[in-house]
Amino acid sequence: MLEVRNLSVSYGPHPALQDVSIRVGTGEIVVILGANGAGKSTLLRSVSGICEGRTLGDVALDGVPLNGLAPDRIVELGVALVPEGRGIFGDLTVRENLLLGAYSERARKHEGPNLDRVLKLFPKMRERRGQICRTMSGGEQQMVAIGRAMMSAPRILMLDEPSLGLSPILCKELFESLRLVRELDIGVLLVEQNAKRSLAIADRGYLIENTRITRGDTAARLAEDEAVQKAYLGAGGGRAVPAEPETAKSTNYEIPAPTPRSAPPPSFAAARSEPRREAEELIGASIDDPVNSAADRSAASIREPSAETWDAADRLARDRLTVVMRDIELAAAEARGRASGTDGDGSTLPAAPGNQAGGEGGKPPVIEIYRRPRVEIYRRRPNGRFERD
Pick from 232, 260, 281: which residue ends a domain? Predict the structure, then answer.
């Protein structure tokens, strides 16, 4: 069992967690709910030994203290973290990512059985063992991240926002997979913004607000709590929203006319109407008529360019094309001249190596336009030195 007692974390003078106490049992899913910045990720990082802040309090796994231990030692004892953003190696295959999770001495002995268990838990990964991870969807990459963590044979699996950026269908598959993880007698500590789905699969939950635990209860009671419903499940909580009455429904699907951004106040409109009326009486017509006429003439002149404009555009295009073709011909003549020992104007040039008599074997010269980059691969040997393959 993972037990955290009176954990406090601060970054300089700024507290991130204050007196946080939680516990996660074997085969139990515990969810941590809270707003952004409440300290949820800091809690997971502190348990994993990778928190950069000042940490006080006690963290223990089955009575073994984890405080002050190196992260790899914490993994060796049975605590694995799936960080936010997955953190997989995109250029490696699925199988290579999974095998990296079995690097610890604890998991290396059981690498084969653990791999079979993970592939059984996530059948899609069995089909795509040789696929490069960066070519997979977000949900499939998340499953690879969870499978890699499970390859370390953890007793406690911690996940930080696993559904972030996933579609609703992939979220459903992900949470169903976490149910199966629980059946393997692995404790799951879940930090998740999707309160509705996480509470549906969790056994217990905690609420973190302003760096402190404000509520801890069973998942069912938290889902029914009115404050939790307003904060994390919407104003209506998990209850059904009453349907609209039949009279309120409309079958008119016409797009409504756009509403003016800002209508002038009545006093302004009344003040402006009097000068307009006087101007229309003076010219003997409506002001809208000359405005509309000018707008029509302007649009017509834009839509129908004059013949002189078309001729000028054609001449400009032909001139530019002539210049480009002339440059190409001069460059080709110069290349041919250099291959035969003469310049483009017929003057003699010193023959370049390999270009005598029109190149090697009398073949026409090769003008290199693109040079393929040279790639060298180095491999690190067991003695720590790098050698080129």
Answer: 232
The CA-based dihedral angle spanning residues 37, 32, 49, 384, taken in that order and rounded to the nearest 10 degrees = -90
- Rounded Cα gap, residues 231 and 12, in angstroms: 30
Which token pair is 154? 């953890």
**CB neighbours of 62 closer than 8 A, spacing ≥ 6?**
1, 155
Count of the separate structural domains present in the chain:
2
User: Which tokens hold the place of 139?
Assistant: 């949900």
Residues 161 and 17 occupy one common structural domain: yes
Which range of residues forms the domain containing residue 345? Answer: 305-351
Reported confidence tier of residue 58, pLDDT bands at 50, 70, 90: very high
Q: Are residues 190 and 85 located together in one domain of the fold?
A: yes
Query: What is the amino acid identity at position 9?
Result: V
User: In terms of domains, do 197 and 66 share one?
Assistant: yes
- Tell me the two tokens of residue 16: 């991130």
Here the CATH number for the domain that contains residue 18 is 3.40.50.300
Tens digit of pLDDT for each residue in 317-345?
778 778 888 888 888 877 777 666 555 45
Same domain, 309 and 228: no
Residues 187/28, Cβ–Cβ less than 8 Å? yes
Angstrom distance (rounded) from CA 188 to CA 79: 10
Backbone phi, psi, residue 213, to 5°: -80, 120
Same-domain pairing of 184 and 329: no
Report pTM.
0.58
232-261, pLDDT tens digit by residue? 765 444 443 334 444 334 444 343 444 444
Q: Residue 143, exposed/middle/buried by CB under 10 A (0-12, 13-18, 19+)?
A: buried
| Contact present, 240 and 44 (Cβ < 8 Å) | no
